[in-house]
Amino acid sequence: MTVGRFNRHGVWAIYAFEMHRFFRTIWTGLATPVITTSLYFVVFGSAIGSRMNTSDLGVPYGSFIVPGLMMLSLFNECIFNASFGIHMPRFTGTIYEPLSAPLSPFEIVLGYVGAAATKAMAVSLVILLTANLFVEVQILHPFWMVAFLVLIAATFCLFGFIVGIWAKGFEQLQIIPMLVVTPLTFLGGAFYSIHMLPEPFKTATLFNPIVYLISGFRWTFYGKGDVSVGISLAMTGLFLLVCLGVIWWIFRTGYRLKS
After folding, report:
1. CA-wise closest residue to 212 among 224, 203, 223, 225
2. What pLDDT is attached to residue 199?
3. d(CA 62, CA 54)
4. pLDDT tens digits for 48-63?
C-alpha cells in the first residue's frame, strides 16, 4: 500500500469485523429498543401524556417524545458500541495489530466509529418505526433529520471512542453513559419542553449541551425547538471538533494505546 494512500481495505476490515459482532446478536439488539420504546409510550404517552401541554408544537405528547426517545437511544448506543469496540482490543492486547498495520489514525478511527455509528443509527430508526405503531409521526425536514442523525451519531461515537480508551476496565465503561449522559438527556428536554420549566431552572438548563442536540433534532420533525436550530447545529459541530481534537491528541501522544 502506497504511503499516503487511503487504505480502504484496512478500514473495511475493521468495519466488517465490528459489524459481524452486531449481526451475531441482531435480533436481541433490535428487540430491546422495540420493547423499551413500547414501554415508554405506555408509561409516558398514556399515563403522563394527558397532563403535558405540547400545543406550541401542534402535536400530541406521544409524537412530541419520539425525537427524544431516538436521541436517548442514540447517545447510549453510540457510546456503548464505540467504547466497547476499541476497549476490547486494548483489553485483549490485539490493539497493536491495527496500530502496526499500514493504517493512519484517521483510518483506524473511521473503521471503529463508522461501525458504531451504523449500529446506533439502525437502532434509532427501529425506534422511529416502532413509534409509528403508536402515534402519527411527521418529519417536516427529512434531509436535515438524516443530517442531524448522522452528525450526532458520529459525534457521540467519537466521544465513546475516547471513553473506551480512557477506561481502565469494563466497569468504567458504564460510568459516563449511566452517571453523566443519561441524566443529562432526561434533564435536556427529551420528554418535555424546557419552556415548561420555571426560572431559574429554565436558564440553568441552557448550560446542558444535550438540550441543543435534542432541540435541533426535534426541529427536523416539527419545525420548532427549544432553541434556534442554528445554535443547535453550531453546538453539535463544536462538540464534534472537541472530540476530534482529543482523539488527535490521543494518537499523537499514544495515551493508553501503547502502554
Report:
1. 225
2. 86
3. 10
4. 666 666 656 778 888 8
